[in-house]
């Protein structure tokens, strides 16, 4: 079961199309990078692939089924981890409630992501950006998640924490055959982790060779 | 219990704007409770017809005088305000509940959004008092008629405000994430939308409440509201017209002043709460009480 974007387009009004006839295929276990200038539409493409936005043209398929026809009340197999973790968590919820929205994550996952027990009773504003990013990620790694779209999730982490987070996350998704679309400005990170790498330029995807 | 009391005291004694709002809210809550409780607890003998004491000016025995039938005006005003407050509370609660449901339905479903928007525009396009009269008449007048009339005509402006806020919330990342985790619209409404809309809802309630009382008085004044035998402010004002012409000014003073003070107090409280419910940058250009009610 692959995640397939078939000629998807999205824009504001008729004139400006930030995503224009994009085709992309993500198979289980694939790790694909996506870069591009700020404001070019990387997050929009991520949200389109996760079903958070509906494309104005084309369709996003999950296997043979359109993602927008996914049965209501069932967790989507494609999960999008937003860029700003502080906006992705209800500010009135304690971390424990955030993690229990959906299926509660396994203890092993919490340990892999470095989530500590004493965070559970705190509110989001009592956590740092890096800690919030880990919480935001943990609640989306459900047993039903087949594809993960990470949108600049480690931007707020220091180099050491970033490395440990990616190490843990990559081991986790590899063991479960989860496909990953990694949206990041860091070319080195994308080339280090990904099998394929794309740049989004004027609404179209251009494949870049992986260095090294 | 002691901890609760300590928290209440610490909130009420705050010297900032929030403290002022809490003090005003506490004062209005005490006034409403006393009026509803006091009005209901008054013995019937205090409001009984007494031809021997007709149209007496205010005195130590009758603080606010007596009316044309010799009934004590202070007791009748208190009972009338209690009746008006009960109707106002119920009508404002129904109206704001309807606004909350409409606002959330519109934000979560595109087809319902069109329906709610059209209904809101239609309601706002009709003359307000004419609509009130029509609904009160359709429900057969009386206490039930006036309650439904106020409830069914005061929701559109608050619903429009809540719809706008709810639509912004529905587009937020955390609601989108909950949706992708398989949460239903009802779940999103209960767990994400309602808690966030509560401050606006409370402010809307406090703003609509005095309007509800005023409209109750208006409808009772023209004979479509509370039954004439019950002491209500509107009924008392309607009855006092003849007394006014005869020079018995106290007959209109007590209910008129009581109504004005209660409405003014809640208008002030509503305005304070509305300002606090909005982010600081929107405080000055936000929705005014007139726009909600």
TrEMBL record, chain A:
In terms of SMART domains, this protein maps to: AAA
Query: Per the similarity annotation, which family is this?
Result: Belongs to the ABC transporter superfamily.
The UniProt keyword set, sorted, is: ATP-binding, Nucleotide-binding, Transport
Q: Please provide the Gene Ontology terms (biological process) for this protein.
A: transmembrane transport
Q: What is this protein called?
A: ABC transporter domain-containing protein
Domain ABC transporter positions: 3-210
GO MF terms held by the record: ATP binding; ATP hydrolysis activity
Q: Name one Pfam family in it.
A: ABC_tran
Read off the InterPro entries from this record.
Answer: AAA+_ATPase, ABC_transp_ATP-bind, ABC_transporter-like_ATP-bd, ABC_transporter-like_CS, P-loop_NTPase
The superkingdom listed in its UniProt entry is Bacteria
């Amino acid at each position: 079961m692959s995640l397939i974007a078939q000629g998807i387009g999205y824009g504001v009004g008729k004139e400006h199309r930030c995503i224009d006839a994009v085709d992309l295929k993500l198979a289980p276990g694939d790790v694909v990078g996506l870069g591009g200038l700020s404001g070019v539409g990387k997050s929009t493409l991520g949200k389109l692939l996760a079903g958070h936005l509906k494309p104005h043209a084309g369709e996003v398929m999950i296997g043979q089924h359109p993602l927008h026809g996914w049965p209501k009340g069932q967790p989507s197999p494609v999960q999008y981890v937003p860029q700003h973790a502080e906006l992705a968590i209800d500010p009135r919820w304690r971390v424990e409630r955030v993690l229990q929205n959906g299926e509660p994550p396994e203890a092993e996952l919490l340990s892999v992501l470095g989530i500590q027990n004493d965070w559970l009773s705190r509110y989001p504003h009592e956590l740092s950006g890096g800690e919030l990013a880990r919480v935001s990620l943990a609640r989306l790694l459900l047993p039903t998640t087949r594809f993960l779209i990470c949108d600049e999730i480690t931007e707020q982490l220091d180099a050491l924490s970033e490395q440990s987070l990616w190490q843990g996350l990559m081991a986790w998704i590899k063991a479960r055959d989860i496909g990953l679309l990694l949206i990041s400005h860091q070319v080195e990170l994308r080339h280090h982790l990904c099998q394929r790498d794309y740049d989004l330029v004027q609404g179209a995807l251009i494949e870049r060779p992986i260095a090294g | 219990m002691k901890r609760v009391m300590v928290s209440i005291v610490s909130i009420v004694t705050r010297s900032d704007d929030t403290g002022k709002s809490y003090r005003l809210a506490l004062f209005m809550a005490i006034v409403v409770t006393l009026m509803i409780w006091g009005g209901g607890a008054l013995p019937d003998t205090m409001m009984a017809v007494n031809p021997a004491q007709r149209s007496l000016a205010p005195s130590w025995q009758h603080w606010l005088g007596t009316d044309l039938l010799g009934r004590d005006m202070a007791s009748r005003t208190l009972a009338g305000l209690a009746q008006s407050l009960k109707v106002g509370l119920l009508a404002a609660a129904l109206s704001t509940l309807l606004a909350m449901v409409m606002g959330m339905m519109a934000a979560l479903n595109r087809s319902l959004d069109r329906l709610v928007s059209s209904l809101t525009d239609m309601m706002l396009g009709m003359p307000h008092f004419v609509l009130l009269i029509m609904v009160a008449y359709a429900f057969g007048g009386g206490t039930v008629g006036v309650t439904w009339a106020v409830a069914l005509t005061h929701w559109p402006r608050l619903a429009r405000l809540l719809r706008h806020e709810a639509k912004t919330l529905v587009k937020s990342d955390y609601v989108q994430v909950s949706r992708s985790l398989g949460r239903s619209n009802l779940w999103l409404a209960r767990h994400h939308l309602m808690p966030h809309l509560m401050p606006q809802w409370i402010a809307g309630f406090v703003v609509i409440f005095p309007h509800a009382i005023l409209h109750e008085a208006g409808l009772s004044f023209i004979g479509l509201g509370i039954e004439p035998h019950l002491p209500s402010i509107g009924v008392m004002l309607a009855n006092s017209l003849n007394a006014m012409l005869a020079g018995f000014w106290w007959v209109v003073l007590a209910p008129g002043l009581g109504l004005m003070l209660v409405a003014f107090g809640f208008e002030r409280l509503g305005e304070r709460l509305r300002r606090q419910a909005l982010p600081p940058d929107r405080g000055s250009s936000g929705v005014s009480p007139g726009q909600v009610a």
